[in-house]
Design goal:
- Strands 7-6-5-1-8 form a 5-stranded mixed beta sheet, with helices on one face. Strands 9-14-15-17 form a 4-stranded mixed beta sheet. It has a 4-stranded mixed beta sheet with strand order 19-20-21-23, covered by helices on one side.
- The chain folds into 2 domains: 380 residues, no CATH class; 31 residues, no CATH class.
- With 498 residues, it is α+β, with helices and mostly antiparallel strands.
- The protein is 33% helix and 23% strand.
- It has 10 helices and 24 strands.
- Strand 6, helix 2 and strand 7 form a beta-alpha-beta unit.
- Helix 6 crosses helix 7 and helix 8 runs parallel beside helix 10.
């Protein structure tokens, strides 16, 4: 080898050694900086807090919702609550406020969210508020002939915000988990095809109805239900690392139970469920300064679902008896599901919100003129005649705008998905969302963040029936359901990808 070639080779070896040293030094320096950054980054910790605030009216009598004719309640059989849950994973905070009410207008929820945001820092678009749909709560939204209790709405907005703030103040280290149970015993589709010869009438005398809502149970003319049911009982639970239950949020697609005297308010089975669940979990009482356990039942997609066994009928019961039976049965299902939960020390939290514009089914000039003639001939309201009641609704809907906006939300908690609907949503919509969601499991909380009436699918609209009759409780355009469903799935895909 020549002297020149030897020198070149020695230079190359030294250069390689130098580069190797630089690489080693760089890697070591990177490790130091990475360790320092990891030391500065806070450890992931999940926290949860829950609080049930009393929303029972402080003065009686009050107008009670849930009927076509006015009802005046003089007392409350059991307390009404806004049951609140706050979740915090150190990166995101999400709040739920589930209220013992039939339906609550968006303005009340928006005021409550704005106050809660100012008090807690949880942004309004990360707060899900909803009504359980007890038919024996204070009238808060304009439907049929019940007057809205405006003073109570002010109290309601204040209490919802206070409940969220109290839940946030009680945040503590927690584990979280979820599972899905099943209870087919308490849900029945209430829209039925009837045999030939059974009269199907509507208050507009259109003659287009092909189904009957709430037909006579065990009647010889019953043919078959016009839709499915959803018997699932999804549960989301939080507990302390030591195992003390903090809260459980359950979901069931059941309209309500009823059996409450007209002059009384009640949280229906939603409130009794919370009592039964606490008992089953051994959490009815807490030791020391530990916050009380909060059981929460949310309404799923129950616009066409009741607790009446139309196939067989049932015996006459005493007031509140069926509420206790249903609450105990569903709480038992939720408790058994709780035993199958896989607990997590930390999970991702994501939430997304969207506004959607929906058409309104306003009356034509001719329909409005006919309705005014019916109202004039009916005399002095309140009315008991169905045709006069819906004529009054038609007159009111003439003042509605051609479109309305509604708030939709999607939440990701680990691999669990939750969406919210501001409507009395049909079970077919809920089942479709469960099938098509990118998250497993997924469920819907209805009557959330406002009230936009019934949401039949286009196919159910074509069948007619009570839920489709145009009123303040059913006014959205017939294409509203596909638009709402598509937007909820878009939101689910968004939170699933982030």
């Amino acid at each position: 080898m020549s002297a020149t070639a030897f020198s070149v080779r020695r230079f190359a070896l030294r250069l390689n050694d130098h580069m190797l040293l630089v690489m080693v030094a760089t890697a070591a320096l990177f490790t130091v900086f990475a360790d320092a950054a990891a030391a500065d980054e806070p450890a992931k910790q999940f926290r949860a807090g829950a609080f049930a605030i009393d929303i029972t009216p402080t003065e009686f009598p009050v107008q009670s919702a849930g009927s076509m004719t006015p009802r005046l309640a003089t007392s409350a059989h059991d307390p009404l609550h806004a049951r609140c849950l706050v979740l915090d994973n150190g990166q995101e905070q999400i709040a739920f406020a589930i209220c013992d009410s039939c339906m609550i207008p968006r303005e009340v929820y928006d005021r409550a969210k704005a106050t809660a945001e100012a008090q807690t820092g949880i942004t309004s678009d990360h707060i899900l508020t909803s009504a359980t749909h007890t038919h024996t709560a204070v009238s808060a939204a304009p439907t049929f002939q019940s007057d809205v209790e405006h003073a109570y709405c002010d109290l309601l907005a204040e209490r919802i915000a206070e409940g969220i703030a109290q839940a946030a103040a009680q945040l503590e280290p927690a584990q979280i988990g979820w599972a899905v149970g099943n209870n087919p015993r308490q849900v029945f589709n209430r829209r039925w095809y009837m045999r030939s010869g059974f009269p199907l009438s509507d208050p507009f005398e259109s003659g287009r109805d092909r189904v009957r809502m709430n037909p006579p149970a065990a009647h010889s003319k019953l043919l078959e239900p016009a839709g499915p049911t959803d018997p699932e009982v999804p549960v989301l639970a939080v507990r302390t690392p030591e195992g003390r239950p903090i809260a459980m949020l359950a979901n069931y697609s059941l309209h309500y139970v009823g059996g409450v005297p007209a002059e009384q308010l009640s949280a229906d089975y939603f409130g009794q469920f919370a009592v039964e669940l606490a008992r089953l979990l051994g959490a009815a009482k807490t030791d020391g300064d530990a916050p009380p356990f909060v059981g929460i039942m949310t309404n799923g997609t129950s616009g066409d679902i009741n607790n009446i066994n139309f196939f067989e009928g049932s015996a006459q019961q005493q007031p509140f008896e069926q509420i206790r039976l249903v609450a105990a049965d569903v709480a038992d299902s939720a408790h058994k599901t709780y035993q199958r939960i896989e607990w997590h020390d930390w999970v991702p939290l994501k939430m997304s919100e969207a506004e959607i514009e929906l058409g309104v089914r306003r009356p034509t000039p001719r329909e409005l003129a006919d309705a005014r003639r019916v109202v004039a001939a009916a005399g002095q309201p309140p009315f008991g005649d169905l045709r006069a009641i819906y004529a009054l609704e038609t007159v009111a809907l003439a003042d509605y705008p051609p479109t309305v906006t509604a708030t939709l939300q999607a939440i990701r908690i680990g691999e669990l998905g939750i969406v919210s609907s501001p409507c009395e949503t049909f079970v077919e919509t809920g089942l479709a969302i469960k099938r098509e969601s990118p998250l497993r499991p997924t469920f819907t909380i209805e009557l959330a963040n406002g009230y936009n009436g019934y949401l039949p699918t286009p196919e159910q609209h074509a069948l007619g029936g009570y839920e489709t009759w145009r009123a303040k409780s059913s006014y959205l355009a017939t294409d509203a359901e596909p638009a709402i469903r598509a937007t909820m799935l878009e939101l689910l895909n968004k939170v699933a990808e982030e």
